[in-house]
């Protein structure tokens, strides 16, 4: 009986080796879920489904609406400017990565000894995005979100194509994958957006508390003072 049990066990093991169970596919996350995972520093992998235009819209749109709805939108001018700078920097980083990809394609026939120099020269000559210009009126109206979204849209399709064909994280022999570089670029925007959201919540909560104590007039004066300082680039 013991011998038969052992034989069956060995036979089962042999069958398992010949017919391994299919690997469990990695979980699929929506872009919104990936955004939350990125902010929590959890692993994310971006592929051809990633939409840069939608990502920027989802990050800055709600914040711009909150700023525009505030009685004194320019109170947040400094933090909004930080978001603008972050979006511009991230888009510029991604634009350079896309230019490098195009340069590598066009220099594939160049001898290896000269290929690196050729790629660098082509990237240096490639068009770079001009920084978006945001006015005080754009902040007051919430139009700043539209401007930033359109700024990113220029590179959205090419970035999705790059991510669709790029080597995934963990298979790049110690180099950062395109997915990881995209993630790093977006983190710059996350940081600025988080700071703006915190500032909004602070001012909103302070206003509620002040109004609750019956000192609405002094609150309005304080808001005006903050707006004046913010317009001069000074954080109260």
UniProtKB/TrEMBL annotation:
It comes from the Bacteria. Residues 1-42, 207-236 are annotated as: Disordered. Residues 210-220 have a biased composition (Low complexity). This is Uncharacterized protein. It comes from Nocardia veterana.
